[in-house]
Amino acid sequence: MKKGLVMEGGAMRGLYTAGVTDVLMKYGIKFDGAVGVSAGVTFGCNYKSLQPGRVLRYNLRYGSRPQFKSWRSWIKTGDLYGADFCYYTLPEVLDPFDTAAFARNPMDFWCVATDVETAQPAYHKLTTGKGRDVAWIRASASIPVFARPVKIGGHAYWDGGVSDSIPVRFLLDKDYDKAVVILTQPAGYQKEPSRLQPVIDRVLKKYPAVVARLRQRHLEYNACLAYIAKEEAAGHLFVFRPSQGIDVSAMEKDPNRLKAVYQVGVRDAKRQLAALKEFLQD
């Protein structure tokens, strides 16, 4: 029986995912494959490198630095989250990402990005955790308007959340029998049309396919939530949802608020651990 893990994005809400995955690593929960989107891959890749605690640690230590995330970075570079700092200085120097462990781990791991010309999802299997993989991870988390497209192999890509916010169908289509899904919004959440759509229409007019996709993103997202609920009821999915609302913005720098989000994930994972083990053993 193949078992998979799906990790939604959500910027700093991704610390909820980190809390859940740290508990799963602590208790030796393993998967045959995983897929992450945006923060779901930038934080979730630590599952494959077997580095519990790393996500919280570097966010608390460096999250307030303007090189990490700031409007100044956006004005100067076009990236709200500083590309050089987040994808090179941080994982290579300040808090090393264990690429050797990442490569050794047999768990398959994909990330999702969005082709800027077609607005279709592109799925890339991460194998080394460095080089070209880093470009794909960065692309998966590059939010339109707030980040530059990332060029890879003659194409350019933006955040995977534009085209496949919760890639559960992608994983199940690869013949996974059961999957665990980590969402970053509480039960009952429904996405509304973006209030920034008029700005998006103007700023991204060179990318009409992306603009069109963003206009209907809330509909696609809510349809995906309905599909997840259906598959969960059928016993094919096990779903983690924040047990309380997570009040944290993409620009949050307060270490206490960041840690609070993480702790919600830790508590939810511990509370549901026995049920999860039963689900995976069936």
From TrEMBL:
One Pfam family per UniProt: DUF6363
Source organism superkingdom: Bacteria
GO biological-process terms attached to the record: lipid catabolic process
MF terms (GO), sorted A to Z: hydrolase activity
Database matches in InterPro entries: Acyl_Trfase/lysoPLipase, DUF6363, NTE, PNPLA_dom, YjjU-like
PNPLA domain segment(s): 5-172
UniProt motif (DGA/G) ranges: 159-161
Short motif GXSXG, span: 36-40
Residues the record marks as active site: 38 (nucleophile), 159 (proton acceptor)
Entry keyword set: Hydrolase, Lipid degradation, Lipid metabolism
Full protein name: Putative esterase (Alpha-beta hydrolase superfamily)
Organism, as annotated: Lactobacillus delbrueckii subsp. bulgaricus (strain ATCC 11842 / DSM 20081 / BCRC 10696 / JCM 1002 / NBRC 13953 / NCIMB 11778 / NCTC 12712 / WDCM 00102 / Lb 14)
Lineage of source species: Bacteria, Bacillati, Bacillota, Bacilli, Lactobacillales
